[in-house]
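Entry 14: structure prediction run for Nyctalopin. Input pasted below.
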Amino acid sequence: MGMACSSLTVILWVPHVHAVWACVRSCPANCVCTQERSCSVLCDRVGLGQIPSQFPCEASSINLDKNSIKFLSERAFGTLPSLKSLSLNHNNISFITPGAFKGLPSLTELKMAHNEYIRYLHTRTFTALKRLVKLDLADCNLFNIPDRIFIELPALQELFCFQNNFRRIPGAIRGMENLTHIYLERNRIEAVAYNSLQGLTKLKYLNLQDNKINVVHERAFQGCQKMEYLYLNDNLISELPENSFDGLRCLKMLNLGGNFLRNISNTWFRDLGELEVLYLDRNRINYIEDRAFENLTSLVALHLNSNNLTTLPFSVFQPVYFLGRLYLFRNPWECDCRIEWLKEWMENYRLVRDISCASPSSVAGIDLMDVLYKRSPEGYCLDPVELNITSEGPTPSEEPWSTTESKFNSFISKLLLQMGLSEEVANTTEVYSNTTQLDGLTDGVSSGVGEDSMEAVSFSFYLPALFTVIVWQCK
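Run finished. Output tokens:
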């Protein structure tokens, strides 16, 4: 019985020893292969000019980064049934034979980024990669790709094509219903057409920043109802259709910074009840329509810095349950009675002083928080005077200050009473319970904001009695 047991142990152990030995035995010259059943083959930075003639059949990953490989022949890697990850980044690949990746039935990740001589791909380049989930073609000098190149990639979820030369969104992505992430930043794309994103029903992330986009068609994003992150910043957009973002009810972050927008329509964001961060910075905005943000009941950060805003009517932010943090620096603010309400709001909620006045001349360069507004005998707010203008007296505002203050405080008091809170509690407590921690949202920071956090105006206005939360199925 003892001998039989010993023999059985030997029989079970042999295959494992053989697997390790086979992996090491067939390891390409100058490469390193790990000593395990599903081995990794490391051939990066070893000066290879071509694909090695053989790889361990047990290989689960192969790294060929930073070599001088120029050509991929048909079945360039032989038959590797266990291979899941293949990386060819930073080579000199200029031509890929159709069928080069045949024999890799389990491949889920293929990286070919930073091959500057790849300017053309055949329709059947990726044939037989039915399990491929992630494809990286970034910085490859591609001008276009065939419309049917992904026809045999039904499992593809992540596509990296940033920093190429595309002048339009590749038609090849249409109908790719499993795509969740598309990276097309730093190309030369000029438009988002009505059918550019057709059939992308599971798309959650789309990056189109730093292109040449000057046209966005009506309902261009209507088929992307699961979209959560949309980057359109640093383009040439000066106008948007009224229904540009209709249907994007799951959108959490929208970046429109660094464009040429002048006006903000009150129709653009009407469907964005789940939006948490909105970037409108670095545009040329000088006018915002009343109630432009009224449906943004989940908003925790609004970036309006670096525009041409001179005033900001209170009606823009009605209803008052809006918002978390508001960034207003680098605008030519006219600190007259029209924005006195903003000073009071900042004082009431202990906000950062960041609104520098550009005019009138008597307060130019002064922070809004330090501006003192005088009153007429009738209680009207009096605009600060222009130092170089002689006049009989300051022009009164349209409404007595006492009336404006009374309306504002009365409105707040009623809302607080509905919640069973006193004004004293509301004015002495900073409430952040309805906001998302912005630290988790820094991936969406629009370029140009940088570290101006000291200039940020932070609003904490928690009035849950004002709205009903609408829950959308976004998973």
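Notes: The chain has a mean pLDDT of 81. Will compare against the previous run tomorrow.
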